[in-house]
Amino acid sequence: MRAAWKGAPFPLGASFDGHGTNFSLFSANATAVELCLFDELGAEERVHVREKTLKHWHCYLPGVGPGQRYAYRVFGPYDPGKGHRFNPAKLLLDPYAKAIDGGVDWAAASTLPYVPDPEDPDADLEIDDEDSSPAMPRCVVVDGRFDWGDDRAPRRPWQETIIYEMHVKGFTMRHPGVREDLRGTYAGLASDVAVRHLRDLGVTAIELLPVHHAIEESFLSERQLTNYWGYSSIGFFAPHSGYAATGSCGQQLSEFKGMVKALHAAGIEVILDVVYNHTAEGNHLGPMLCFKGIDNSTYYRLAPDAPRHYVDCTGTGNTLDTTNPIVLRMIMDSLRYWATECRVDGFRFDLATTLARERSGEYDKAAAFLDVIAQDPILSQVKLIAEPWDTGPGGYQVGNFPAPWREWNGVYRDTVRDFWRGQSNVAAFASRFTGSSDLYEADERGPLASINFITAHDGFTLRDLVSYDEKHNEGNGEDNRDGTDDNRSWNCGAEGPTDDSAIISLRERQQRNLIATLLLSEGVPMVLAGDELGRSQQGNNNAWCQDNEISWLDWALAPWQEDLHRFVRSLISLRARHLVFRRSRFFAGTLGEEGLPDVWWFRPDGRRMTQRDWTRQDARALGVFLNGQKLQETDEQGAPITDVSFLVLFNGHDEQIEFKLPNASYGRRWTMRLSTAEESIDEEPVEVRARDMVSVHGRSMLVLERIGIAGDPAV
After folding, report:
1. Is there a domain that residue 615 lies in?
2. Cβ–Cβ < 8 Å for 322, 368
3. Is residue 526 part of a domain?
4. Engineered SS bond to 127: which of 78, 358, 522, 612, CB 3.0-4.6 Å?
5. Judgement on whether residues 543 and 524 belong to the same structural domain of the protein
6. What is the rounded CA–CA span in Å between residue 594 and residue 655?
7. Cβ burial, residue 707 (10 Å; 0-12/13-18/19+)
8. Edge-to-edge, what's the strand order for the sheet holding 20-26?
9. Cα distance between residue 292 and residue 283, in whole Å
10. What is the DSSP pairing of strand 32-38 with strand 69-75?
11. pLDDT value, residue 714
C-alpha cells in the first residue's frame, strides 16, 4: 500500500486529494516512523514511512480516503535526561489531524502502566513497553469540502462589538426549544431558537470556550467528573468531537462549519478561545498522547539545566515552545485553518503572555509570536484578544500587548466589582469607566483595546457575585482548595439563597449596577452567557470540571428573570444607538466649539470634582457629563459624527443621595433614561431640568439623556 509522497511534503497532516491521502509528520530527532491504519473492527495495519524530506516524514496512500482512522508510532531514543521520550509502544495522535474520534479510555489505560506512578518521582526514567493503543482515540481523514453558499463574515467594527462568552454544550444542553438530540452540540447552537436569543439580546459576537479537541485528565475520571471547560487541547485543527450531534467525524467538521454559517447569517461573529500555551500531556509524569512522543525536545520548553523536566508557565505541567519555528508554524497553520477553512472571525488567546515569552523566558512585546501574527495578511485582520497573564515570573501584562491586540482587562473587573461593594475610590472607578487610558494609551491604542468584563467562565457568575462572600467548590473534589479566594464579591447580607426580601432586592439592584456599568463603559464589553438570566453556579467559582446543571444554562429561569433579561437587552440597545458610550479615542478633557469639555466629572452638589475630591478614599458618589458633540469620530466620507449628551450619576453609598444637576450650559432639559433602582428601563421617562435636585437611590446609578437639538447645548 505504501507509495511516495504526491506533491510537496510541507503541508503537514492528512490531506485527501480525491484519489488518495498524503500523510506528513514532522520529527527532527526520530529514527523511524510508522503510520498505523485501523479498520472498522479496530485491527491495526502498520505502514513504514520511508520518505523523509527536511525532517518531514511522509507518504502517499492511493485509495485511502475520508473516514480512515489512523495514528503514528515514532521511533527514537528514550532518554528523558536529554529531553527525548520516543516510545513506539505508544500510539500518537497527528498534531495536524482535522478530526479525532473520541477521548482517552482511562479505564483501559488503568490496566496498563500508561501514566507513570505520580508517587514515584523517577517513574518516567524507564521506558514503558505496554501498548497504549486500546486506550487511545484515533485520528480520522476528512474531506473538508463544504457548501458555504452566500456566507459572508459580518466584519463588525470593534466600536459595534459586544461579546457574549459561552460554552457550546452548556448554552443549549437544557434548552427546551432545542431538539433533544441536538442539545449541547454545534448544531444546537445553530438552531433557530438559540440564534434568536443571541440576536434579540443584541450581542454581536460569541466567544466560545475551547472547541479544539481536548482530553480529560485521568484523576477526573476517578472522581466521575469531566474537564468541562476544555482547556486541555491535544488537537489544534480538530473540532472537539464531544460537541457534535453527528457520529461521523467527517460530518462533525461540517456541523461546526454549519454553526458558523448560521451565526454569520444572523450577523453574529464567532471568536474561538484557543489554548496554544500548553497541551494535555502534563509534566514529565504525564501521559504520552502526541507531541511528547513525536519530538519532545522540539515541541516543549524544557528546563535548560534539566531537560527531563518542563518549564511550566501555565500551571498545567508543560509549556509549548513558541520560540521554535516548527511550533510557531503549527500555531500559525492552525489559526489560518480556522480563519480560512472554518471562517471564524477571531481568537481569544488563553494565557497569551506565555506565547510571547522569548528564549530568556521573559515576556517581550516584540516576541516572534506577536510579530508573525502582525505581518500575516489574514491573521492580522481578524479579531485578536489576549488573556494578558500567565503563572510565570512577570506574567501579569495587562496593558502591555502591542497594537492591534485587544486584552481582557482584569483591572477593570476588579475595580468595578470593588466600587459597587464599597471597596474602591471614585478615581480608580472613573478611570475604568472611561476606557483605562493609563493602560492603553501607549502604542496609540484607544479605549477599544480594553475588553471590559465583570464576570467570565472562570469565577463567579453575576448572580453569585452578589450572593456569596466565599467560594463553594466542594463538588470539585479538592476540599474547596481550588479556585481563587480573591473574588471581590459581596453577598449583600446572607451567604447563598435567602428569603429575605430586602437582601433579594439589593442583590437584584447590584446585578443591574454591574451590568449597566459594563455596557455603558468605554471599551468593548464582554457579557458572560446566562448572566442576563440570573444563572447561578451555587457559589462554585471554578466549575471547570462540572459538566452538569451547575454549569449549563437553566432556561427555566427565563420567565421569572424576564425583568433582568429585558434590562440587559435595553442596555445593549442603548449602547448600540449611542456612539458616546463606545468612543474610539480617549477623553481629553478639552473644550469643544460650544465651550464644553468632552467629559466633565462633578460632585453630588453639582460642582466640578477637585483634586482633593479625587483622592478621598471614602468618596463613593460622582457624576459624569459625556459630551456627544465632541466625539472626534468621522463617517466614511470624513464628516464629523455627533451624538446626544448624557449624564450618568453613580451612588455607591448605602443611603440615597441628592444630586444637583449641572448648570444650563451642559443642557437645560434632561430625560431620565434608566435607573438601576428600577427593575426595567422606564418607557415613559421623567423630565428634569438644569440645577434640579435628583434623588439617586442607595447603591444605584441613574442615566439622563439631554433633550434638545443636536449642536445646541443651551436648548
Report:
1. yes
2. yes
3. yes
4. 78
5. yes
6. 36
7. middle
8. 13-16, 20-26, 56-62, 51-53
9. 10
10. antiparallel
11. 40
Comparing 593 with 64, the larger pLDDT belongs to 64
Q: Which three cell numbers stand for residue 107?
A: 479505564
Q: pLDDT (tens digit, 9 = 90+) per residue, 459-478?
A: 999 999 999 999 999 999 99
10 is a domain residue:
no
Q: Which cell is 345 given? A: 472571525
Together in a domain, 620 and 698: yes
Give me the CATH number covering residue 630.
2.60.40.1180
Do 559 and 652 share a structural domain? no
Q: Are residues 490 and 580 in the same domain?
A: yes
Q: Residue type for 143, please?
A: D
State the residue for C-alpha cell 435628583: 694
Residues ≥6 apart with Cβ < 8 Å to 715 = 667, 668, 669, 707, 708, 709
Q: Is 669 helix (H, G, I), strand (E, B) or coil?
A: strand
* 249-265 helix and 192-201 helix, angle to the nearest 10 degrees: 40
Give the bridge partners for 269, in sequence order: 205
| Amino acid making up residue 590 | T
Q: Which amino acid is at 456?
A: A
Query: What average pLDDT does the segment 558-577 reach?
Result: 93
Residue 628 in domain: yes
In this predicted structure, the answer to whether residue 517 has a pLDDT above a threshold of 50 is yes
Phi first, then psi, for residue 578 (nearest 5°) are -125, 115
Place of cell 459624569: 624
H-assigned helices in 102-229: 106-109, 168-172, 186-189, 192-201, 218-222
- CA separation for the pair 29, 710 (Å, rounded): 70
Number of domains, the chain: 2
- Find the domain containing 610 and state its range: 587-707
Look at 246 and 491; give whichever has higher pLDDT. Answer: 491
Q: Write the DSSP symbol of residue 486.
A: -
Question: Which of 167-176, 543-552, 613-622 shows the lowest mean pLDDT across its residues?
Answer: 613-622
Cα separation, 632 vs 640, whole angstroms: 7
Q: Which of 566, 586, 606 is the last residue of a domain?
A: 586
What are the residues whose beta carbons fall under 8 Å from the beta carbon of 208, sequence distance 6 or more?
166, 167, 168, 270, 271, 272, 273
Active site residues: 350, 387
Q: How much of the chain exceeds pLDDT 90, in percent?
A: 86
Rounded to whole angstroms, the Cα distance separating 140 from 138 reads 6
Q: By C-alpha distance, which of 42, 76, 39 is closest to 57? A: 76
Residue 113: pLDDT over 70: no
Do 693 and 641 fall into the same domain?
yes
Q: Give the pLDDT mean for 343-352.
A: 98
237 sits in which H/E element: strand 233-239
The pTM for the full model equals 0.96
Per-residue pLDDT, averaged over 244-253, amounts to 84
What value does the mean pLDDT take over residues 472-497?
Answer: 96
Question: pLDDT of 359-382, one tens digit each?
Answer: 999 999 999 999 999 999 999 999
Q: Which of 535, 557, 586 delimits the end of a domain?
A: 586
Residue 142 has pLDDT above 50, yes or no: yes
Q: Which helix (H) or strand (E) holds 326?
A: helix 325-336
Could you tell me the three cell numbers for 356? 510571547
pLDDT of the residue at 635: 82
